[in-house]
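Subgroup meeting minutes
Present: P.N., E.W., G.H.
Scribe: E.W.

1. P.N. recapped why we're keeping a running log of single-chain structure predictions: easier to compare across weeks, and new members can see raw inputs and outputs side by side.
2. G.H. added today's entry (82 aa).
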Amino acid sequence: MRERAPELTAGLMARVLAGAPTVAEAERRRAVLGRIRERQAADGCREAVSGGTRAAQFAPFDALEGFREKVAAVIEESRDDS
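Output recorded in log:
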């Protein structure tokens, strides 16, 4: 199932900017969010790709020695953190 990315509304932008720890960070976020709004206005909102489809891009790395073990370790770490 695909999910639509949320539209970057003025309210969402305000919440993101309000969470900035410094004035410089708020300005950086404002610039990034402005570029996102421009892209959304031109192309519309993007849709999230399902895990299985997205995972296919990493298939070439499967041939790397130790790749599966490293992936398993990262998954285990993420479970421990939650």
